[in-house]
Amino acid sequence: MAKQELLKVEGLKQYFPIKGGLLGRTTNHVKAVDDISFTIYEGETVSIVGESGCGKSTTGRAILRLEEPTEGVVEFKGVNLAGLSKREMRKYRKDMQIIFQDPYASINPRQTVASVLNEAMEIQKVLPANKRRARIEELLETVGLLPYQADRFPHEFSGGQRQRIGIARALSVNPELIICDEAVSALDVSIQAQVLNLLEDLQQEYNLTYLFISHDLGVVRHISDRIIVMYLGKIMEIADKESLFENPKHPYTKALLSAIPVPDPDKKKERIVLKGDVPSPINPPTGCRFHTRCPFATEKCVTDVPELRTTAGMKENHQAACHYIEEIASGEMQPNY
Amino acid sequence: MSEETVNHPVTAKKINPRLESYKLFWRRLAKNKAAVTGGIMILLIILMAFIGPWIITNFTDFRPNETDLANKLQGPSAAHWFGTDSYGRDIFTRVIFGTKLTLYVGFFSVFIGGVIGVIFGIVSGYYGGRIDTVIMRLMDVLLAFPGILLALAIVAVLGGSLTNVIIAVGIFSVPAFARVVRGSTLSVRKLEYIDAVRALGSSDFRIIFKHILPNIMSPIIVQASLRIATAILTGAGLAFLGLGAQPPAPEWGAMLNEGRQYMYEAGHVALFPGLMIVLVVLAFNIFGDGVRDALDPKMKN
Description:
The complex is a heterodimer. By secondary structure, chain A is of the alpha/beta class. Chain A has a domain at about 250-335. Chain A has helices at about 55-65, 85-90, 115-125, 130-140, 160-170, 190-205, 215-225, 240-245, 250-255, 300-305, 325-330; strands at about 5-20, 25-40, 45-50, 70-75, 80, 95-100, 175-180, 210-215, 225-230, 235-240, 320. Chain A has a 7-stranded mixed sheet with strand order 6-7-8-3-9-10-11, with helices on both faces. Chain A has a 4-stranded antiparallel sheet with strand order 2-1-4-5. The longest helix of chain A has 18 residues, at about 190-205. By secondary structure, chain B is mostly helical. Chain B has a single domain, classed as MetI-like fold (Orthogonal Bundle). Chain B is about 70% helix and about 0% strand. Chain B is built from 12 helices and no strands. In chain B, helix 3 crosses helix 12 (about 270-295) and helix 4 (about 90-125) runs antiparallel to helix 5 (about 130-145). The longest helix of chain B has about 35 residues, at about 90-125. In chain B, about 40% of the residues are buried. The chains are: A alpha/beta, B mainly alpha. Chains A and B meet through helix 2, strand 6, helix 3 and helix 5 of A and helix 8 and helix 9 of B. Chain B: This is ABC transporter permease subunit. Chain B: It comes from Planococcus salinus. Chain B: InterPro entries: ABC_transport_permease, BP-dependent_transpt_permease, MetI-like, MetI-like_sf, OppC_N. Chain B: It is a multi-pass membrane protein.
């Protein structure tokens, strides 16, 4: 399968200034996303996982320029979105859409479903006005709602149904890339599965590419082709699904995976409990961001920033940012809890 | 999934949330006795302003500017309900004719101040950054002036007339609106549906007028209803200082000023216009409070 690059993120940084003092000068920055690079190929699903505050949602928002990125290149089909003017950017917005976490906050309570979808098509001039009504009903059916519900208001729907409306809105402009920002996190588990299946069906039907942002490893395992693990604004490990779940290399990834509950009560599993809390992104730790909580940390981790790299025993495209991948794998280094 | 709705008839009763919230608003307002009293008073005052002069001109011989020096400074009697002033003009007639002027000042100045203030507030809250700083510091400067002094300065520059009073009081209402609207805009702007519309490539104009403004109407309405009272008071204050409507216009503030000279021998000349100002301001204030409680029950304490 010849994979075509759809989205390429290079050196993306998103710093939020902290203003303080009498004159409101910038005293410091929250480094929400600090120099990350990755590529998404057409038709695949890439997930970003990590704890709260690791910058995964900010990454999604920076790609769409809902937040202006501080630095870096976001290339969509060869065009650098970060360098476009606001006006030029509007044209490209058609090709990438976002589905939000909170189905209750993501639809204007004063608009009917039809007017939400109609507005989306009007903004991007997708269809002439007289053909939009038919398209709206078609879209509702596509996402599993009924055409006669088009003239209802958001409060008449359940959370899962609202999320479907959000999906219909994203689909209405025929995008290629959809960023799902915790798209199922706020839903009941049973509804989660339905929405995930809907997303998968839509992917097949319309050849969509997903950037799936989530903290739920179960969901991520179900839907992803490739997974990016983030911690404090940096990528810790990036790999295809099998490699990441079966052969994790970074100590942080291992700790995350050990937190997945196993349905077999007899199976003994080593649970890696990390010490302490996530450090502040205002003054992130030097060297490896994870060294304050890593059971393997050494002097080198405090001073040197590890690069993403592939070592022996790792598949192609599997990269981890740790100085001691080999030593940990061979058992030469033992965790120091 | 949608199974649960499949059985619903297609003709299910549609509920418009806008209509629903209006109904809820009316129900809450109707429960508030003070607000209902204020509302009825306002309606009577409006009725008086528009029908009163017509009745007087058509069914009586009283004219607001007709002098009768033989009967000057008469106390209230059956012939002159509120008495007469220093030119022998019937005070009751003048009070009725002045109602319209007072309401003009109240409504138009709040309208002007509201429109400008809302625009400043939304732009400030939506764009933030430097624009926000500049606009809000400007508003702070306006707020730092005592209201009447600011209006006085504006009228002094523009010259004394009813229109200029309206403009002055309007400018003086701008910062109050701008502040309230900025705060509400900040909270609405953060909602995800605003981001969704932005991700669709909507223009800022559309976001501001279609998605933000309708969702911040409640605080604007509350602010407007409370602000009318202040505007009327300031307008009357300016007229009292001789900077508003020019004589012989039957403006209440101006009448108060005329009556001031005869406070001891004929107190009624100042009393009745003053009483009317109190009544109108009171009506708008308690009505405004009621509207606030009905629109935002959480704020009540």
